[in-house]
Fold this sequence. Notes:
This protein is an alpha+beta fold. The protein has four helices and five strands.
Amino acid sequence: MMLAEIVLPGGITFLLGLSACFVAGLLYLDLINGTIQAFTTWFLGSTIMLFALRSTVTQFLPASVEKGNTDEDLDAYDKIIDVVETIPTDGEGRVSFQGSSWRARHHNSSIPCMKGTKVRILFRENLVWVVQRLENQNAVYTIPETHKNNGQP
């Protein structure tokens, strides 16, 4: 059980195995005898070790912790996507993004964006993606500060 800690990190299986070693020692010294006494001793020993020693063991055998980006909008900014429903100059159309159809509108464009053209995601306002046509591939756009963190400073 103690070797299983390599596959199942977290300190629990190591402490269960340590308790089993303790019971084996007590059986060897003839301080306990019988299956019921051995199981009861192992159960109580495991419970005590889990509560008393788990924090100590996890310092020496740390668990794998992964921290990732929780703001999905940050991953979407600057992605090139397809228009699936024409975006008029003064209204909303639809774009395909991450396997779904989303409402979208232009950011400062006087030309409608026809179905099948490519656009770049600039930011999102509520449930509407604000996009830019890809006429000029060298165009640089800076995302306004109010949209970088969903309007939060």
